């Protein structure tokens, strides 16, 4: 891998652990619907859009609802989730992230966000990360959820960098599939067993710099 010009980061689970807040909000909603919802069930929601996540929970509970009710339930979940993430501070940034991003900047690479979250700007603002990004593509700018590559292709387009010169960092299989579908090199953050399709897997960014990737 040579001639890399840009890095595109997913947000949830890569730069900050917001997964726990998604889980708390979905669990709260599931309890209202008398559905048993476990941490294992929550794994199925990683990298999945809000409405599709609700469909999975309803499937677990064997419940069928009309579209209007589903929209209201998804909105209720998001209100709870926003309440949780509104309390985020820079202390919630995952270990090593800032040093890694600064090592990318030192190498002259561009940085974009590629996240399905419609709350990305709120999260980045609370974490004081916004200024690090040359482009921010989130759920308000895309119409297709991962594994569709739209979010990453729009990031590359906004950076004016060809997809083949971009590296994506992702923690969910749907996001890794999206990166592959975009024709980008993909580095998984998490478990090698769970992220088998990634070109490379790291447990996290602690003591990691761009140069140490050896690309």
UniProtKB/TrEMBL annotation:
One of its GO terms (molecular function) is beta-phosphoglucomutase activity. Signal peptide: none annotated. Keywords: Carbohydrate metabolism, Isomerase, Magnesium, Metal-binding. It comes from the Bacteria. Its EC number is 5.4.2.6. InterPro entries: B-phosphoglucomutase_hydrolase, Beta-PGM, Beta-PGM-like, HAD-SF_hydro_IA. PANTHER family: 6-PHOSPHOGLUCONATE PHOSPHATASE, HEXITOL PHOSPHATASE B. This is Beta-phosphoglucomutase.
């Amino acid at each position: 891998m040579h001639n890399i010009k840009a890095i595109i980061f997913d947000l949830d689970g890569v730069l900050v652990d917001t997964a726990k807040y998604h889980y708390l909000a979905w669990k709260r909603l599931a309890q209202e619907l008398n559905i048993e919802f476990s941490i294992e069930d929550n794994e199925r929601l990683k990298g999945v859009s809000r409405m599709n996540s609700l469909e999975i929970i309803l499937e677990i509970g064997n419940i069928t609802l009309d579209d209007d009710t589903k929209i209201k339930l998804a909105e209720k979940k998001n209100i709870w989730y926003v309440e949780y993430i509104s309390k985020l501070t820079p202390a919630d940034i995952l270990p090593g992230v800032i040093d890694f991003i600064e090592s990318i900047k030192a190498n002259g690479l561009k940085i974009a966000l590629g996240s399905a979250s419609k709350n990305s700007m709120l999260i980045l603002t609370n974490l004081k990360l916004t200024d690090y990004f040359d482009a921010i593509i989130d759920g308000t700018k895309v119409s297709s959820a991962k594994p569709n590559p739209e979010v990453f292709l729009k990031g590359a387009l906004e950076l004016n960098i060809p997809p083949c010169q971009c590296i994506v960092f992702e923690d969910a299989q749907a996001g890794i599939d999206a990166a592959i579908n975009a024709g980008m090199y993909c580095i998984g953050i998490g478990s090698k067993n769970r992220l088998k399709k990634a070109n490379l897997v790291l447990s996290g960014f602690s003591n990691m710099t761009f140069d140490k990737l050896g690309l």
